[in-house]
Amino acid sequence: MREEGEGYDDRRDEGRRGTRAAVHAASGGRLGAAHPRQEGPTDLRLVPPAMAAWATSAVMLDAAPAWVTGTAVGCLILAGVLMTLRVGRVGRVPGAMTGGRSGWPAVTAAAVLVCVAAAAVSAGLHGADLRRGPLPALAERYATVIAEAEITSDPRFVRPRVRGPAPAPTAVLFEADVRRVETRDGATMVTRTPVLMVVDVERRRSSSSAGDRPSPWLALLPSTRVRVTARVVPPADGGDIAAVLRVRDPKVPEVMGEPSAAQRLAGRLRAGLREATDGLAPDARALLPGLVVGDTARITPELDEAFKETDLAHTLAVSGSNLTIILVLLVGPPGLAQRVERRGLAPRLGISLRTTALLGGALTLGFVIVCRPDPSVLRAAACGAVALLALATGRRRSLMPALATAVLLLVLYDPWLSRSYGFLLSVLATGALLTLAPRWSAALRARRVPPRLAEALAAAAAAQALCAPVVAVLSARVSLVAVPCNLLVEFAIAPATVLGFAALATAPWAMPVAKALAWCAGWPAGWIADVARTGAALPGAGVDWPGSWTGAVLLALATVALLLAGRRLVRHPWWCGACGVLLLLAVVQPPPLTRVVTGWPPPGWRFAMCDVGQGDATVLAAGAGTGVVVDAGPDPVLVDRCLRTLGITRIPLVVLTHFHADHVAGLPGVLRGRQVGAIETTAYQEPSDQAEFVRREAAARGVPVTRAAAGEERRTGGLSWRVVWPPADPTVVPEGPNDASVALLVRSAGLRLLLLGDLEPPAQRALLRSPAGPLLAGVDVLKVAHHGSAYQDPGLLSRAAPRLALISAGADNTYGHPAPGTVAALRAMGAVVLSTDRDGALAVTGEGAELGVAGD
After folding, report:
1. What was the pLDDT predicted at 332?
2. Alpha carbon distance 801, 827 (integer Å)
3. I want to staple 286 with a disulfide (CB 3.0 to 4.6 A). Which of 298, 373, 404, 452 is the partner?
4. Are strands 675-676 and 650-651 parallel, antiparallel or unpaired?
5. pLDDT of residue 784
6. Which of 356, 365, 414, 369 is nearest to 385 (CA)?
7. What is the pLDDT of residue 756?
8. What is the DSSP string of 90-111?
9. Which of 675, 820, 653, 816 is nearest to 742 (CA)?
10. Where are the beta strands (DSSP E) in 657-750?
11. Which has the closest alpha carbon to 538: 685, 434, 606, 637?
12. How far apart are CA 840 and CA 697, in angstroms?
């Protein structure tokens, strides 16, 4: 009788092939599916060492050298003791080495200790990199230096949120390693210290186009060496940089060394993809480079906020899924990778399994080069490649060890990942897909849910359940639309990614073909953007939540309670349907139902002041679903949400009183998904960049732009208004944008309203002396000028003598709006004074003796 290892006879070989075919049939051919007999219990032995290394890295980055050394030496000694005892026990007990898993706890403990020691040493060395060299001491003195640095990341434009009349100055940010420092006293020091470089720049107007000419700093590639004169300041929140270098002379970067060949190739490919997408719709043009290679330079703050609100921000970051999609195209479903029935392009082209593996490795290397070899990309490549390699066996049991191995190696390679929220979310999402998602998918299939829908729903729900507590810490908000939005975009991500990579690869050699591929990819990319915008605009898209780790624990407990309740509810389809309808109503919040439940907006409202923070956005009711919008506030999301709550779908006219950002930056939110007849602005086109922004947004949607002048009268429905400022005389030059504000005297049935924009005392006094001055006496409602600032003309306030004075101001704003003196003066005249910073959104109802106001 032959032994097993000597070979197989034909009957045994045929039987094994039959068994293999049966297992394959049972798997259903789905991604990573395997026969139950192949699975067994999940192997978690590598999880404790990985978690221990992660925790140690997070703690030891700031530890003193003595603590690092003591921890490493102590752990190695204890590990040696444990293994010595283990070996001694094996020697005394014959067969102990094969006696099951009774000895594994000691081995696992020793492995944990060794990993802790390694992590302590790695974290200690990386932490010391930030404390050594001259930059920390120079940062404490805020010294000005001449530094030579090597760029390590892509430069990117950053413009903070609008917090006042004008946006904060635009800056270009990039990470770099400082190699040489020269101080003012002539001392030169050689170092290698990671820093963040901030270059204050201005977008310069091109004489040949209406667009902006980008800063030359944005053209720099990683590995380029530059020489700058900068002020060294301490980092705001620590992290993996030793200092911040603020460059004050940003005209032209002084290049000391060209980028590497790999980075030049990557830059050429990325530039080709941007050129190929130039002709697409704005959303697809901005989104496609982000989906493919993580290039988010074109993503507007509004679109970025929409992706965050719907928990779709992961699609804009380079992740393991990008690489997995491309490799699946090559090798087919990974569960079949080692079988004769394997699919994908490789077997169709006659490529052997070994060559396929080499091509997969080449694709992975190319992915790292094009997407930049920074820690986040390396993390994505490692997780994607390791997970795909484990899936190639067709056994989910090997996936958790693969994930634990990736975590362990990555935190040892870059200990700063242990403090990265992105890394934590990536690991949690992957762990959810490997542990919870298969069980939830099986449970849904057992209840007759179609297999692919069950897998998609289980994956989205599992990732959301584990990641939501961490997201709540970052955003102080819990998205209620994350799962459906992720489901709706899932089928579009793969074609957008594949076609985008094809455009990337062909752009340098065949741009027309690349443009055609990009046009095809633009459809799914536009769908993803539409889903994000629509989900973010829903009134109940999210709920506020404590942004702390205590809040995260509370959310985790709430999630567990919800899952336990859900297990009982699924047995009762009618209850499930009722809960689903209630959730849908809570998210959509139809205006009629919202009015019944919350009383907002009040029936018969005439004028509404939206709560948009430190800015202005008001609405004049002009019929069912119709309103004239005066100013758009600083935030597109907030004004869009306000208009949706009010039920406004048609806007005959948008009046932008002047071009300060806190009045016009929210314009995309007003225009989104609504019929807009025209936009009317002041004739004073300053600030020029904001005026150009308004013209660009209007042109993109085919909305005409006109200019207002005193004496103009208009009517729509039961609403009429007269422009009382600025004067039509072009020779009258205002002192600034505020004094050029469009002021309106409005009649809504028997109600008279005066909207003053941001007029300041000089213009207010001129308005009193103008032909419209007598018309301003005795108004019912006054929209107080300039957010209720202290600069008001008493004569105008006395002439208007409002019964109700409304002020739009942001809570805790730094301008002191509304000014106590202004509020006191209005109240002394008998006016009721309300402001959005204290009372939220406001709506005026009634007229005459029935005049009233309601708050949201």
Report:
1. 60
2. 10
3. 298
4. parallel
5. 94
6. 365
7. 93
8. HHHSTTGGGSTTTTHHHHHHHH
9. 653
10. 675-676, 679-681, 705-707, 713-716, 719-725, 743-748
11. 637
12. 28
Pairing of strands 225-233, 243-247: antiparallel
| Phi, psi angle pair for 198, to nearest 5° | -120, 120
User: What's the CA angle centered on 503, arms 502 and 508, to 5 degrees?
Assistant: 115
Are 682 and 657 contacting, i.e. CB atoms less than 8 angstroms apart?
Answer: yes
The C-alpha atoms of residue 436 and residue 462 are separated, in whole angstroms, by 6
Q: In the predicted model, what is the mean pLDDT of the chain?
A: 81
The backbone torsions φ and ψ at residue 471, rounded to the nearest 5 degrees and listed phi first, read -60, -35
Nearest to 46 by CA among 397, 425, 393, 402: 402
> In the numeric block, which tokens belong to residue 594?
């919202």
Burial class (CB within 10 angstroms; exposed 0-12, middle 13-18, buried 19+) of 815 = middle
What are the angstrom distances between the C-alpha of 262 and each of 221, 269, 284, 844?
A: 10, 11, 28, 63
Q: Does residue 256 surpass a pLDDT of 80? A: yes
DSSP code string of 230-299: EEEE--SS-SS-SEEEEES--SS-EEEEPPPHHHHHHHHHHHHHHHHTTTS-HHHHHHHHHHHH---TT-
CA dist., res. 261 & res. 274, Å (int) = 20
- The 3-state secondary structure of 385-413, one letter per residue: HHHHHHHCCCCHHHHHHHHHHHHHHHHHH
Full-model pTM: 0.75
Chain centroid offset of residue 499 CA: 23
pLDDT score, position 653:
95
Single out the residue of 182, 189, 266, 263 nearest to residue 224, CA to CA: 263
Closest CA to 807 of 830, 840, 780: 840
DSSP3 helix / strand / coil % (the chain, rounded to 5): 55, 15, 30
The torsion of the CA quartet 183, 184, 187, 191, rounded to 10 degrees, works out to: 10
The Cα 328–Cα 344 span in angstroms is 7
77-114 pLDDT, tens per residue?
A: 998 888 887 666 655 555 444 444 455 677 788 889 99
Query: What is the per-residue pLDDT across 228-246, written as a single tens digit (0 to 9) for each?
Result: 888 999 887 767 888 899 8
Does the pLDDT at position 147 exceed 80? yes
**pLDDT tens readout for residues 395-443:** 545 667 777 888 898 899 889 888 888 788 888 887 888 788 888 888 8
Of 37 and 842, more confident: 842
Q: In sequence order, which residues have a C-beta less than 8 Å from that of residue 412 and are 6 or more positions away?
A: 53, 57, 118, 119, 122
Strand 832-835 relative to strand 804-807: parallel, antiparallel, unpaired?
parallel
Judged by phi (left if over 0) then psi (alpha if -120 to 50, else beta), residue 28 lies in left
- Give the least confident one: 518-522, 635-639, 817-821: 635-639
Q: Which two tokens stand for residue 602?
A: 């009040």
Q: Give the other-Cβ count within 10 Å of 370's Cβ.
A: 25
The alpha carbon of 708 is separated from its chain's Cα centroid by a whole number of angstroms, namely 38
pLDDT: which is higher, 338 or 474? 474
